[in-house]
Design brief:
Order of helices and strands: EEHEEEHHEHEHEEHEHEHEEEHEHHEEE
CATH architecture of the domain at 107-288: 3-Layer(aba) Sandwich
Strand content: 15-25%
Helix content: 25-40%
Largest sheet: 8 strands, mixed
Oligomer: single chain
CATH class of the domain at 107-288: Alpha Beta
Structural class: alpha/beta
Bound molecules: zinc ion
CATH topology of the domain at 107-288: Rossmann fold
Length: 415
Amino acid sequence: MLIRLRALHFSKAPLFSLSEEDIQAHGHHVTCPVCETDLPPEIFARIGRHYSKSQLEICQCKECEAIYYLNPPGESQVDFYYQNLWNKTKGESLDSEVRVPTKVRRKISQMLGDLKLPKDIRILEVGCGTGSMLAGLIEDGYTNIYGLEQSKFRSKVSEKRFPRRIFSEGYASHKPRKSYDLIFCNHVLEHLYRPCDYIKWVNENLSDDGVAIICVPNQEWEQVPNQLFLLPHLHSMSSLSLSKLAELSDLSVRFWMRSDRCDEICIVCFRGEGKPEWSNSPFAELRDYPSIALTSQKERFKSMWSATNEKRGSSVVVNWANANRTIANAVQRWNGYTVWHRFWRHVFSFLAFRQRLAIRYWYPLNRGQRLINRLISSLGREVTDYNYLEYQITGKSSDGVPEISFNENAVVFLK
Ligand SMILES: [Zn+2]
């Protein structure tokens, strides 16, 4: 089976271009980059032309459930992507005058409040971006804050906001003179090559009763196409993945249950047991962490491909920012997503594609929604949270692993 994906021309996603030679030169993960098991992972899909000898392979760890590229693009390729494509599409340029942003985010400071940590602890944010989380901490009275940011543009912005508190480097090259009481990263771990190396670095650089916080997208909420085309994410992790990750350090883990985003997992790592006040707290252990997946990952992938197989001709997969639609696995939607957003999305789809799109809802529809849905639905059309992709089944791979290829304007461009 060969599934050909074609991105429609108005996709805004920047291209990540890889040639077959590039892929040939990629290294392979010998062990799981999250839990370091040497159990061979399950391969879910290969990305590349069916005639290519080398393809990107997407797999899932049998020990910790993490989904990752078995042979990810090299670090220089990913750096190039961030510096030249990602930043530019976001309008980030080092030449322009840096404006200090005013955005303030309080998630981490809320967590610290739940943990009842003192306000003068030494705090480091890894991947602080333009500093909105640090600003939230400052506003809530935390004084001893630092940020690490690899992007030259974003570290320049943060530096302007918090002079002499920002290190313009990645975590691996950061050698703190004094250990930190709190190290946190918010939606950064999934971009790192080897999360297992990160947790070891954290373990080494935390003070004796230090705490680490990690927030990542929740695998159970991520859509199958997003997991297939992870870039620039290199990993998709579950609550089990994060628990197994922490086992590589001498840190214990609890899950924070008050996240304002339903599609993420936040963990608190700490040394030993009993340091923070856990009783009657908004924290859970792995066994109490609520599972929200409708089906296992394997079933999700299987159902995606079998659903695809049953269709004749092509299907359209459409991305709408923040629209959580999935193929064969619609567990989620954004709570704040309003009927009007959906309505205009439908109108736009119709105008843009000149065709009707079927949208499946997993929650009770009101009358207006039902009517809209009926009007625009047709067989073989689906809307999801991925880019404007069209795929077509044209063949079959020898071992039954789906093969996917992209043309221009896809997120990953294989040539
Ligand atoms: Zn693993």
